[in-house]
Amino acid sequence: MTRLLDVRDLRVEFRTRDGVAEAVGGVSYGVDAGRTLAVLGESGSGKSVTAQAVMGILDSPPAFVTGGQVLFRGRDLLTMSPRERRSVRGAAMAMIFQDALSALNPVLTVGAQLAEMYEVHRGMSRKDARARAVELMDRVRIPAAKARVNDYPHQFSGGMRQRIMIAMAIALEPELIIADEPTTALDVTVQAQVMDLLDELRREYAMGLILITHDLGVVADVADEIAVMYAGRIVETAPVRELYRRPAHPYTRGLLDSIPRVDHKGKELYAIKGLPPSLLTVPTGCPFHPRCPRAQDICRTERPPLYEVPDATDTVAPGRASACHFWKDELDA
Q1: What is the C-alpha radius of gyration for the chain, rounded to an integer number of angstroms?
Q2: Domains recognised in the chain with CATH numbers
Q3: At what angle are helices 158-170 and 188-205 packed, to 10 degrees?
Q4: 26, 77, 167, 277: which has the highest count of C-beta atoms within 10 A?
Q5: What distance in Å separates the CA atoms of residue 196 and residue 265, rounded to the nearest whole number?
Q6: Residue 181 phi/psi, 5° resolution?
Q7: Segment (H or E) for 71
Q8: In three state form, how does the secondary structure of 13-50 look?
């Protein structure tokens, strides 16, 4: 069965004055219709660059896609002409950006920006497109949508602006949505509302959803599968419950241990030691070894492949893998 999105060995590099930085070094992941894939990792791990390469919106130069395939319904997006790519973007796949205030045009009303989707892609009249814009704002639960359709982005709160971005993404009922840190800078209550809305829309439209975040707590209740990235590579993949119950990579365990917990009140919050490596000088062997509590000599010299990892019943689960030489020890920790 053809996957909705199937990313295979994707490679992206940035050619700078200081050298060539491999921002995405052979990433492979996929998502099916009606399912949610969460892509996790610290800032600089390559999550957003991968998503931008999938959408075809990387600035080139300095960014260049140097290898791999991005198959959408079996068609390789990387081999399409710019015109074909534009016809897919927005209509079949859409992206929700991290900073809604920067992503929205400050000199156009939100109604005009939403209506433009229908005018350009559906050929609607301005009046009909504006009516659909109001319906969209109602759909994402913006109060008094009819009265606020002529407001500008700066007149909305952060949470409401993010809802406008979600409305824009679902306007043409795409099959795939990529949400890049959609809850950044929002308070906890608004984060939960935004995540609930995305999950509800995913179920209603049977869309595939790729959720990019650095916060494991945000995705626990909405993701089906998780891919963990570090230094431009996938280091662990797993069904969401398996990953939370039995992480198979020290980096994933470090991310889980960094989540604040009520039963740890008064204790020092755990933090992974050190900093992510510069992509201009990625360490040899396992890129995580300078920060890893399990690092041994082999970790410094040999880069681990993605090993297949069995589930709790000792059967190999599809999509369960870890790029750690000592993943068995990590499971038992």
Answers
A1: 21
A2: 5-223 (3.40.50.300), 247-332 (no CATH)
A3: 10
A4: 167
A5: 27
A6: 50, 55
A7: strand 63-72
A8: EEEECCEEEEEEEEEEEEECCCCEEEEECCCCCCHHHH
When pLDDT is averaged across residues 135-146 and rounded to a whole number, the result is 93
CA terminus-to-terminus distance, the chain: 37
Measured in degrees and rounded to the nearest 5, phi and psi for residue 307 equal -80, 140
Residue 239 half-sphere exposure toward CB, CA atoms < 13 A: 9
> What is the spatial distance between Cα 9 and Cα 29, in angstroms, rounded to a whole number?
9
42-78, pLDDT tens digit by residue?
989 999 999 999 999 999 899 999 999 999 999 999 9
Q: Quick one: tokens of 108?
A: 């156009």
Taking each helix axis from N to C end, the angle separating 158-170 and 126-139, rounded to the nearest 10 degrees, works out to: 120
- Total residues belonging to the chain: 333
Burial per residue of 22-60, b for 16 or more beta-carbon CB atoms within 10 angstroms, e otherwise: bbbbebbbbbbbebbbbbbbbebbbbbbbbbbbbbebee
Residue 261 CB partners (closer than 8 Å, separation 6+): none
Looking at residue 176, what is its pLDDT? 97
Distance CA 1, CA 80 (A): 22
| Joined tokens for residue 89 | 């973007």
Which of the 8 DSSP states describes residue 249?
S
Type of residue at 308: E
61 φ, ψ to 5°? -70, 165
> Are 139 and 154 within 8 A, CB to CB?
no
| 178 DSSP assignment | E
Per DSSP, the chain holds a count of helices (H) and strands (E) of 13, 12
DSSP string, 258-292: TS--GGGTTSPPP--SS-PPPTTSPPSSSTTGGG-
